[in-house]
Amino acid sequence: MTAPTPKTVVTERRNWLALAVLLVGAFMALLDTTIVNVAIPTIRTSLAASNATLSWIISGYALAFGLALIPAGRVGDRLGHKWVFIAGLSLFTVASLACGLATDDMQLISARAVQGLAGGMFFTPITAVIQLMFTGRERARAFAVMGATIGFSVALGPLVGGLIIAASGADAGWRLVFDVNVPLGVLAVVAAVVLLPAGAENPDTAADWPGLVLLSAALVALLTPLIQGQQEGWPFWTYASMAGAVALLAVFALWERHVETTGGDPLVPPRLFAHASFSGGVLLALVYFAAFTSIFFTIALLWQAGLGHTALQSGLVVTPFAVGLVGGASRSDALAARFGRAVIVAGLGMDAVGITAVWFLLARMPSTGYSGWQLVAPLLIAGVGSGLFIAPNVDFIVATVDPQDAGAASGVIGTMQRVGSAIGIAIIGTILFGTLHVNRAGPDAIARAFGHSATLAMAASAGLSIAAFALGFALPKRAG
Questions:
Q1: Given this chain, do its domains 1-202 and 268-480 carry the same CATH topology?
Q2: Cα torsion at 266, 199, 390, 189 (round to 10°)?
Q3: Other beta carbons within 10 Å of 257
Protein backbone atom coordinates (compact mmCIF):
# COMPACT_ATOMS: atom_id res chain seq x y z
CA MET A 1 0.00 0.00 0.00
CA THR A 2 1.48 3.35 -1.06
CA ALA A 3 1.80 6.02 1.61
CA PRO A 4 0.15 9.37 0.84
CA THR A 5 2.53 11.96 -0.58
CA PRO A 6 3.28 15.12 1.45
CA LYS A 7 1.31 17.14 -1.12
CA THR A 8 -1.77 14.98 -0.56
CA VAL A 9 -1.47 15.33 3.22
CA VAL A 10 -1.19 19.13 2.92
CA THR A 11 -4.24 19.26 0.62
CA GLU A 12 -6.31 17.12 3.00
CA ARG A 13 -5.33 19.32 5.96
CA ARG A 14 -6.21 22.45 3.99
CA ASN A 15 -9.58 20.98 3.01
CA TRP A 16 -10.50 20.25 6.63
CA LEU A 17 -9.45 23.76 7.65
CA ALA A 18 -11.61 25.11 4.84
CA LEU A 19 -14.48 22.96 6.12
CA ALA A 20 -14.07 24.58 9.55
CA VAL A 21 -14.51 27.99 7.89
CA LEU A 22 -17.68 26.82 6.13
CA LEU A 23 -19.05 25.42 9.37
CA VAL A 24 -18.46 28.72 11.17
CA GLY A 25 -20.68 30.30 8.52
CA ALA A 26 -23.35 27.61 8.90
CA PHE A 27 -23.19 27.99 12.69
CA MET A 28 -23.71 31.77 12.48
CA ALA A 29 -26.59 31.59 9.99
CA LEU A 30 -28.59 28.98 11.89
CA LEU A 31 -27.74 30.22 15.38
CA ASP A 32 -29.49 33.44 14.35
CA THR A 33 -32.71 31.55 13.64
CA THR A 34 -33.16 30.83 17.37
CA ILE A 35 -30.80 33.06 19.38
CA VAL A 36 -32.98 36.11 18.75
CA ASN A 37 -36.08 34.52 20.30
CA VAL A 38 -34.91 35.12 23.87
CA ALA A 39 -34.01 38.72 22.96
CA ILE A 40 -37.51 39.48 21.63
CA PRO A 41 -38.99 40.62 24.99
CA THR A 42 -36.03 42.92 25.73
CA ILE A 43 -36.22 44.37 22.19
CA ARG A 44 -39.92 44.96 22.85
CA THR A 45 -39.09 47.05 25.91
CA SER A 46 -35.93 48.74 24.65
CA LEU A 47 -37.35 49.97 21.32
CA ALA A 48 -41.01 50.17 22.38
CA ALA A 49 -41.56 47.76 19.50
CA SER A 50 -45.04 46.73 18.38
CA ASN A 51 -46.24 43.15 18.43
CA ALA A 52 -46.04 43.06 14.62
CA THR A 53 -42.41 44.18 14.80
CA LEU A 54 -41.56 41.20 17.01
CA SER A 55 -43.02 38.82 14.44
CA TRP A 56 -41.24 40.58 11.57
CA ILE A 57 -37.86 40.26 13.32
CA ILE A 58 -38.16 36.46 13.15
CA SER A 59 -40.27 36.06 10.00
CA GLY A 60 -38.37 38.60 7.92
CA TYR A 61 -35.09 36.79 8.54
CA ALA A 62 -36.54 33.37 7.72
CA LEU A 63 -38.35 34.55 4.59
CA ALA A 64 -35.36 36.44 3.14
CA PHE A 65 -33.08 33.49 4.00
CA GLY A 66 -35.34 31.03 2.19
CA LEU A 67 -35.82 33.16 -0.91
CA ALA A 68 -32.04 33.61 -1.33
CA LEU A 69 -31.17 29.91 -1.29
CA ILE A 70 -32.01 28.89 -4.87
CA PRO A 71 -30.74 32.00 -6.72
CA ALA A 72 -27.54 31.94 -4.63
CA GLY A 73 -26.88 28.44 -5.97
CA ARG A 74 -27.43 29.59 -9.54
CA VAL A 75 -25.16 32.63 -9.13
CA GLY A 76 -22.54 30.38 -7.50
CA ASP A 77 -22.62 28.08 -10.51
CA ARG A 78 -22.06 31.10 -12.72
CA LEU A 79 -19.40 33.05 -10.78
CA GLY A 80 -17.90 30.47 -8.42
CA HIS A 81 -19.30 29.39 -5.05
CA LYS A 82 -16.29 30.67 -3.09
CA TRP A 83 -17.01 34.29 -3.96
CA VAL A 84 -20.74 33.99 -3.34
CA PHE A 85 -19.94 32.57 0.12
CA ILE A 86 -17.52 35.43 0.86
CA ALA A 87 -19.90 38.11 -0.44
CA GLY A 88 -22.82 36.69 1.55
CA LEU A 89 -20.84 36.28 4.76
CA SER A 90 -19.45 39.82 4.43
CA LEU A 91 -22.95 41.25 3.98
CA PHE A 92 -24.23 39.13 6.89
CA THR A 93 -21.50 40.55 9.14
CA VAL A 94 -22.31 44.15 8.19
CA ALA A 95 -26.07 43.52 8.60
CA SER A 96 -25.46 42.00 12.05
CA LEU A 97 -23.66 45.18 13.08
CA ALA A 98 -26.56 47.24 11.71
CA CYS A 99 -29.02 45.17 13.76
CA GLY A 100 -27.02 45.88 16.92
CA LEU A 101 -26.92 49.63 16.15
CA ALA A 102 -30.64 49.95 15.31
CA THR A 103 -32.43 52.77 17.14
CA ASP A 104 -36.00 52.02 16.07
CA ASP A 105 -38.07 49.06 14.95
CA MET A 106 -37.99 49.83 11.20
CA GLN A 107 -34.19 49.98 11.20
CA LEU A 108 -34.06 46.64 12.99
CA ILE A 109 -36.59 44.96 10.67
CA SER A 110 -34.73 46.21 7.58
CA ALA A 111 -31.31 45.15 8.87
CA ARG A 112 -32.71 41.79 9.95
CA ALA A 113 -34.16 41.16 6.46
CA VAL A 114 -30.79 41.98 4.88
CA GLN A 115 -29.13 39.65 7.40
CA GLY A 116 -31.49 36.84 6.36
CA LEU A 117 -30.88 37.52 2.66
CA ALA A 118 -27.13 37.37 3.25
CA GLY A 119 -27.49 34.18 5.32
CA GLY A 120 -29.28 32.46 2.44
CA MET A 121 -26.61 33.74 0.03
CA PHE A 122 -23.69 32.12 1.82
CA PHE A 123 -25.50 29.05 3.15
CA THR A 124 -26.15 27.50 -0.29
CA PRO A 125 -22.47 27.49 -1.41
CA ILE A 126 -21.47 25.50 1.69
CA THR A 127 -22.81 22.25 0.23
CA ALA A 128 -21.33 22.97 -3.21
CA VAL A 129 -17.84 23.68 -1.82
CA ILE A 130 -17.92 20.53 0.35
CA GLN A 131 -18.73 18.50 -2.74
CA LEU A 132 -15.85 20.18 -4.53
CA MET A 133 -13.29 19.48 -1.80
CA PHE A 134 -14.21 15.93 -0.74
CA THR A 135 -15.08 12.62 -2.35
CA GLY A 136 -16.29 9.23 -1.17
CA ARG A 137 -16.04 8.45 2.53
CA GLU A 138 -14.44 11.81 3.34
CA ARG A 139 -17.41 13.62 1.80
CA ALA A 140 -19.80 11.57 3.94
CA ARG A 141 -17.78 12.50 7.05
CA ALA A 142 -17.81 16.17 6.09
CA PHE A 143 -21.59 16.20 5.63
CA ALA A 144 -22.06 14.35 8.93
CA VAL A 145 -20.04 17.04 10.71
CA MET A 146 -22.09 19.70 8.93
CA GLY A 147 -25.35 18.04 10.05
CA ALA A 148 -24.18 17.95 13.66
CA THR A 149 -23.16 21.62 13.45
CA ILE A 150 -26.58 22.60 12.12
CA GLY A 151 -28.40 20.76 14.91
CA PHE A 152 -26.05 22.09 17.57
CA SER A 153 -26.33 25.73 16.41
CA VAL A 154 -30.14 25.71 16.26
CA ALA A 155 -30.35 24.06 19.67
CA LEU A 156 -27.76 26.28 21.31
CA GLY A 157 -29.31 29.60 20.22
CA PRO A 158 -31.71 30.31 23.11
CA LEU A 159 -29.16 29.44 25.80
CA VAL A 160 -26.40 31.53 24.22
CA GLY A 161 -28.80 34.44 23.83
CA GLY A 162 -29.84 34.16 27.46
CA LEU A 163 -26.23 34.07 28.66
CA ILE A 164 -25.29 37.15 26.59
CA ILE A 165 -28.24 39.17 27.90
CA ALA A 166 -27.63 38.04 31.50
CA ALA A 167 -23.97 39.08 31.30
CA SER A 168 -24.53 42.42 29.54
CA GLY A 169 -27.90 43.68 30.73
CA ALA A 170 -31.15 43.94 28.81
CA ASP A 171 -30.48 46.93 26.50
CA ALA A 172 -26.84 46.14 25.68
CA GLY A 173 -27.51 42.39 25.71
CA TRP A 174 -29.96 42.20 22.82
CA ARG A 175 -27.58 44.29 20.74
CA LEU A 176 -24.69 41.94 21.54
CA VAL A 177 -26.85 39.00 20.43
CA PHE A 178 -26.40 40.45 16.91
CA ASP A 179 -22.94 41.96 17.35
CA VAL A 180 -21.40 38.63 18.39
CA ASN A 181 -21.46 37.78 14.68
CA VAL A 182 -19.12 40.63 13.79
CA PRO A 183 -15.73 39.31 15.03
CA LEU A 184 -16.64 35.77 13.95
CA GLY A 185 -17.68 37.02 10.53
CA VAL A 186 -14.53 39.10 9.97
CA LEU A 187 -12.25 36.19 10.87
CA ALA A 188 -14.27 33.74 8.74
CA VAL A 189 -14.20 36.04 5.70
CA VAL A 190 -10.41 36.43 5.89
CA ALA A 191 -9.95 32.67 6.32
CA ALA A 192 -12.35 31.96 3.44
CA VAL A 193 -10.33 34.15 1.06
CA VAL A 194 -7.20 32.17 1.93
CA LEU A 195 -8.51 28.63 2.30
CA LEU A 196 -11.56 28.02 0.09
CA PRO A 197 -10.99 26.59 -3.39
CA ALA A 198 -12.09 28.86 -6.21
CA GLY A 199 -14.06 26.17 -8.04
CA ALA A 200 -15.23 26.20 -11.62
CA GLU A 201 -17.28 28.98 -13.18
CA ASN A 202 -20.09 28.29 -15.63
CA PRO A 203 -21.10 31.52 -17.41
CA ASP A 204 -23.88 29.71 -19.28
CA THR A 205 -25.85 29.07 -16.07
CA ALA A 206 -29.09 31.09 -16.11
CA ALA A 207 -31.25 32.21 -13.21
CA ASP A 208 -35.05 32.50 -13.25
CA TRP A 209 -35.25 36.09 -11.97
CA PRO A 210 -38.91 36.69 -13.02
CA GLY A 211 -39.87 33.54 -11.10
CA LEU A 212 -37.99 34.76 -8.03
CA VAL A 213 -39.74 38.16 -8.18
CA LEU A 214 -43.18 36.53 -8.52
CA LEU A 215 -42.57 34.09 -5.64
CA SER A 216 -41.13 36.81 -3.39
CA ALA A 217 -44.04 39.15 -4.09
CA ALA A 218 -46.56 36.38 -3.38
CA LEU A 219 -45.00 35.46 -0.05
CA VAL A 220 -44.67 39.09 1.08
CA ALA A 221 -48.30 39.68 0.08
CA LEU A 222 -49.30 36.70 2.21
CA LEU A 223 -47.12 37.37 5.27
CA THR A 224 -47.73 41.13 5.55
CA PRO A 225 -51.45 40.85 6.41
CA LEU A 226 -50.86 37.81 8.62
CA ILE A 227 -48.38 39.82 10.70
CA GLN A 228 -49.92 43.30 10.52
CA GLY A 229 -53.60 42.41 10.27
CA GLN A 230 -54.35 41.76 13.93
CA GLN A 231 -52.59 44.95 15.06
CA GLU A 232 -54.49 47.09 12.52
CA GLY A 233 -57.91 45.51 13.03
CA TRP A 234 -58.00 43.49 9.80
CA PRO A 235 -58.87 46.30 7.36
CA PHE A 236 -59.88 45.65 3.74
CA TRP A 237 -56.31 45.77 2.43
CA THR A 238 -55.32 42.69 4.45
CA TYR A 239 -57.91 40.52 2.69
CA ALA A 240 -57.03 42.08 -0.68
CA SER A 241 -53.35 41.33 -0.05
CA MET A 242 -54.03 37.67 0.74
CA ALA A 243 -56.19 37.35 -2.37
CA GLY A 244 -53.39 38.98 -4.36
CA ALA A 245 -50.95 36.43 -2.92
CA VAL A 246 -53.08 33.58 -4.26
CA ALA A 247 -53.21 35.24 -7.68
CA LEU A 248 -49.45 35.81 -7.73
CA LEU A 249 -48.83 32.17 -6.80
CA ALA A 250 -51.05 31.10 -9.71
CA VAL A 251 -49.11 33.37 -12.10
CA PHE A 252 -45.85 32.00 -10.66
CA ALA A 253 -46.97 28.41 -11.35
CA LEU A 254 -47.92 29.31 -14.94
CA TRP A 255 -44.59 31.09 -15.47
CA GLU A 256 -42.58 28.14 -14.13
CA ARG A 257 -44.44 25.78 -16.46
CA HIS A 258 -43.72 28.15 -19.38
CA VAL A 259 -39.99 28.29 -18.52
CA GLU A 260 -39.80 24.50 -18.30
CA THR A 261 -41.68 23.81 -21.54
CA THR A 262 -39.49 26.29 -23.46
CA GLY A 263 -36.30 24.55 -22.32
CA GLY A 264 -35.37 27.04 -19.60
CA ASP A 265 -34.27 26.47 -16.01
CA PRO A 266 -37.21 27.31 -13.72
CA LEU A 267 -36.72 28.38 -10.11
CA VAL A 268 -39.10 25.61 -8.96
CA PRO A 269 -39.32 22.93 -11.71
CA PRO A 270 -43.00 21.88 -12.05
CA ARG A 271 -41.96 18.34 -12.98
CA LEU A 272 -40.89 17.78 -9.38
CA PHE A 273 -44.52 17.93 -8.29
CA ALA A 274 -45.48 15.14 -10.67
CA HIS A 275 -44.30 12.96 -7.79
CA ALA A 276 -47.07 12.92 -5.17
CA SER A 277 -44.57 11.90 -2.49
CA PHE A 278 -42.41 14.94 -3.25
CA SER A 279 -45.43 17.25 -2.92
CA GLY A 280 -46.22 15.63 0.42
CA GLY A 281 -42.59 15.96 1.51
CA VAL A 282 -42.47 19.66 0.62
CA LEU A 283 -45.69 20.25 2.56
CA LEU A 284 -44.15 18.29 5.44
CA ALA A 285 -41.08 20.57 5.44
CA LEU A 286 -43.28 23.67 5.52
CA VAL A 287 -45.60 22.41 8.28
CA TYR A 288 -42.86 20.94 10.47
CA PHE A 289 -40.73 24.08 10.47
CA ALA A 290 -43.80 26.24 11.12
CA ALA A 291 -44.31 24.26 14.33
CA PHE A 292 -40.61 23.92 15.22
CA THR A 293 -39.69 27.61 15.07
CA SER A 294 -42.82 28.94 16.75
CA ILE A 295 -42.45 27.11 20.08
CA PHE A 296 -39.28 29.07 20.94
CA PHE A 297 -41.11 32.32 20.16
CA THR A 298 -44.08 31.44 22.40
CA ILE A 299 -42.04 30.24 25.36
CA ALA A 300 -39.68 33.24 25.25
CA LEU A 301 -42.55 35.74 25.37
CA LEU A 302 -44.46 33.82 28.04
CA TRP A 303 -41.45 33.37 30.31
CA GLN A 304 -40.12 36.92 30.02
CA ALA A 305 -42.94 39.34 29.12
CA GLY A 306 -45.62 37.29 30.88
CA LEU A 307 -43.93 35.84 33.95
CA GLY A 308 -41.17 38.42 34.38
CA HIS A 309 -38.28 35.95 34.23
CA THR A 310 -34.87 36.76 32.75
CA ALA A 311 -33.64 35.93 29.27
CA LEU A 312 -31.26 33.38 30.78
CA GLN A 313 -34.11 31.64 32.60
CA SER A 314 -36.04 31.61 29.33
CA GLY A 315 -33.06 30.04 27.56
CA LEU A 316 -32.67 27.44 30.29
CA VAL A 317 -36.33 26.41 29.97
CA VAL A 318 -35.79 25.22 26.38
CA THR A 319 -32.37 23.66 27.11
CA PRO A 320 -33.92 20.15 27.42
CA PHE A 321 -35.18 20.55 23.86
CA ALA A 322 -31.66 21.52 22.77
CA VAL A 323 -30.09 18.54 24.55
CA GLY A 324 -32.63 16.17 23.02
CA LEU A 325 -32.14 17.63 19.54
CA VAL A 326 -28.36 17.18 19.65
CA GLY A 327 -28.75 13.64 21.02
CA GLY A 328 -31.32 12.65 18.41
CA ALA A 329 -29.37 14.20 15.53
CA SER A 330 -26.16 12.42 16.54
CA ARG A 331 -27.74 9.01 15.89
CA SER A 332 -30.34 9.88 13.25
CA ASP A 333 -28.32 9.08 10.11
CA ALA A 334 -27.20 5.66 11.38
CA LEU A 335 -30.71 4.79 12.55
CA ALA A 336 -32.31 6.03 9.32
CA ALA A 337 -29.86 3.95 7.27
CA ARG A 338 -30.89 0.87 9.24
CA PHE A 339 -34.63 1.37 9.82
CA GLY A 340 -35.58 3.77 7.02
CA ARG A 341 -38.72 5.90 7.20
CA ALA A 342 -39.69 4.43 10.57
CA VAL A 343 -37.07 6.68 12.19
CA ILE A 344 -38.50 9.80 10.51
CA VAL A 345 -42.05 8.88 11.52
CA ALA A 346 -40.96 8.03 15.08
CA GLY A 347 -39.17 11.39 15.34
CA LEU A 348 -42.21 13.28 14.10
CA GLY A 349 -44.39 11.30 16.53
CA MET A 350 -42.13 12.15 19.49
CA ASP A 351 -42.13 15.80 18.44
CA ALA A 352 -45.94 15.84 18.27
CA VAL A 353 -46.27 14.10 21.64
CA GLY A 354 -43.81 16.48 23.30
CA ILE A 355 -45.35 19.70 21.95
CA THR A 356 -48.87 18.46 22.69
CA ALA A 357 -47.77 17.66 26.25
CA VAL A 358 -46.37 21.20 26.62
CA TRP A 359 -49.73 22.58 25.49
CA PHE A 360 -51.59 20.27 27.91
CA LEU A 361 -49.39 21.36 30.85
CA LEU A 362 -49.83 25.05 30.03
CA ALA A 363 -53.59 24.55 29.84
CA ARG A 364 -53.77 22.65 33.14
CA MET A 365 -51.41 24.72 35.28
CA PRO A 366 -52.34 28.07 36.82
CA SER A 367 -50.32 30.71 34.95
CA THR A 368 -48.80 32.07 38.15
CA GLY A 369 -47.44 28.60 38.97
CA TYR A 370 -45.57 27.75 35.77
CA SER A 371 -42.25 26.07 36.36
CA GLY A 372 -39.59 25.17 33.84
CA TRP A 373 -39.12 21.84 35.62
CA GLN A 374 -42.61 20.77 34.57
CA LEU A 375 -41.66 21.17 30.92
CA VAL A 376 -38.36 19.26 31.05
CA ALA A 377 -39.72 15.85 30.01
CA PRO A 378 -42.01 16.95 27.15
CA LEU A 379 -39.40 19.34 25.72
CA LEU A 380 -36.74 16.64 25.92
CA ILE A 381 -39.01 14.20 24.06
CA ALA A 382 -39.82 16.84 21.42
CA GLY A 383 -36.13 17.65 21.06
CA VAL A 384 -35.09 14.03 20.50
CA GLY A 385 -37.86 13.68 17.94
CA SER A 386 -36.75 16.83 16.15
CA GLY A 387 -33.17 15.58 16.06
CA LEU A 388 -34.27 12.29 14.52
CA PHE A 389 -36.18 14.17 11.82
CA ILE A 390 -34.11 17.25 10.97
CA ALA A 391 -30.84 15.56 9.99
CA PRO A 392 -32.09 12.92 7.48
CA ASN A 393 -35.37 14.49 6.26
CA VAL A 394 -33.96 16.12 3.11
CA ASP A 395 -32.48 12.82 1.89
CA PHE A 396 -35.87 11.12 2.21
CA ILE A 397 -37.78 13.89 0.42
CA VAL A 398 -35.19 14.11 -2.38
CA ALA A 399 -35.45 10.34 -2.82
CA THR A 400 -38.99 10.86 -4.15
CA VAL A 401 -37.76 12.51 -7.40
CA ASP A 402 -35.57 11.44 -10.31
CA PRO A 403 -31.80 11.49 -9.51
CA GLN A 404 -31.06 14.21 -12.08
CA ASP A 405 -33.49 16.53 -10.23
CA ALA A 406 -31.93 15.99 -6.79
CA GLY A 407 -30.17 19.38 -6.73
CA ALA A 408 -33.29 21.33 -7.68
CA ALA A 409 -35.35 19.35 -5.16
CA SER A 410 -32.89 20.12 -2.35
CA GLY A 411 -33.12 23.84 -3.13
CA VAL A 412 -36.92 23.77 -3.07
CA ILE A 413 -36.95 21.91 0.26
CA GLY A 414 -34.50 24.34 1.87
CA THR A 415 -36.62 27.27 0.71
CA MET A 416 -39.83 25.72 2.01
CA GLN A 417 -38.25 25.07 5.41
CA ARG A 418 -37.46 28.78 5.82
CA VAL A 419 -40.82 29.86 4.37
CA GLY A 420 -42.49 27.48 6.83
CA SER A 421 -40.62 29.16 9.69
CA ALA A 422 -41.79 32.57 8.50
CA ILE A 423 -45.42 31.49 8.10
CA GLY A 424 -45.37 29.69 11.46
CA ILE A 425 -44.22 32.82 13.30
CA ALA A 426 -46.82 34.92 11.45
CA ILE A 427 -49.67 32.56 12.41
CA ILE A 428 -48.53 31.97 15.99
CA GLY A 429 -47.82 35.68 16.49
CA THR A 430 -51.34 36.51 15.28
CA ILE A 431 -52.85 34.03 17.76
CA LEU A 432 -50.61 35.03 20.65
CA PHE A 433 -51.03 38.80 20.33
CA GLY A 434 -54.59 38.68 18.98
CA THR A 435 -55.86 36.95 22.11
CA LEU A 436 -53.69 38.91 24.58
CA HIS A 437 -55.90 41.11 26.75
CA VAL A 438 -54.57 42.43 30.06
CA ASN A 439 -57.68 43.62 31.91
CA ARG A 440 -55.94 45.11 34.94
CA ALA A 441 -52.50 46.01 36.22
CA GLY A 442 -50.30 43.74 38.29
CA PRO A 443 -47.98 40.80 37.66
CA ASP A 444 -50.66 38.17 38.30
CA ALA A 445 -53.01 39.69 35.73
CA ILE A 446 -50.21 39.94 33.16
CA ALA A 447 -49.18 36.34 33.85
CA ARG A 448 -52.75 35.09 33.42
CA ALA A 449 -53.19 37.02 30.16
CA PHE A 450 -49.95 35.75 28.67
CA GLY A 451 -50.63 32.24 29.99
CA HIS A 452 -54.00 32.14 28.23
CA SER A 453 -52.59 33.43 24.92
CA ALA A 454 -49.50 31.20 25.06
CA THR A 455 -51.72 28.17 25.65
CA LEU A 456 -53.72 28.93 22.51
CA ALA A 457 -50.53 29.55 20.51
CA MET A 458 -49.02 26.28 21.74
CA ALA A 459 -52.23 24.48 20.77
CA ALA A 460 -51.71 25.72 17.20
CA SER A 461 -48.09 24.54 17.28
CA ALA A 462 -49.26 21.15 18.55
CA GLY A 463 -51.78 20.94 15.71
CA LEU A 464 -49.05 21.69 13.17
CA SER A 465 -46.78 19.03 14.70
CA ILE A 466 -49.56 16.42 14.51
CA ALA A 467 -50.15 17.34 10.86
CA ALA A 468 -46.41 16.93 10.22
CA PHE A 469 -46.53 13.45 11.80
CA ALA A 470 -49.35 12.44 9.42
CA LEU A 471 -47.44 13.81 6.43
CA GLY A 472 -44.38 11.75 7.38
CA PHE A 473 -46.03 8.66 5.92
CA ALA A 474 -45.87 10.27 2.45
CA LEU A 475 -42.10 9.74 2.36
CA PRO A 476 -40.52 6.65 0.78
CA LYS A 477 -39.52 3.81 3.06
CA ARG A 478 -35.85 4.28 2.19
CA ALA A 479 -33.76 7.34 1.37
CA GLY A 480 -31.85 5.78 -1.48
A1: yes
A2: -110
A3: 14
User: Residue 366 and residue 447: Cα distance in Å, rounded?
Assistant: 9
Alpha-carbon distance of 399 to 395, in angstroms, equals: 6
The residue that leads in pLDDT, 337 or 42, is 42
Superfamily of domain 268-480: MFS general substrate transporter like domains (1.20.1250.20)
Q: What is the pLDDT of residues 46-70, one digit of tens each?
A: 898 888 888 899 988 988 998 888 8
Write the pLDDT tens digit of every residue in 404-427: 777 778 888 888 888 898 899 989
The length of the chain in residues reads 480
Lowest mean pLDDT segment, chosen from 6-15, 69-78, 370-379: 6-15
Of 132 and 1, the structure prediction assigns the larger pLDDT to 132
For the domain made up of 1-202, the CATH class stated in words is mainly alpha
Q: Say what angle helices 81-101 and 105-133 make with each other, to 10 degrees.
A: 160
Return d(Cα 371, Cα 303) in angstroms, integer: 10
- Measure Cα distances from 119 to 15, 67, 123, 160 in Å: 22, 10, 6, 19
Q: Is the pLDDT of residue 2 over 60?
A: no
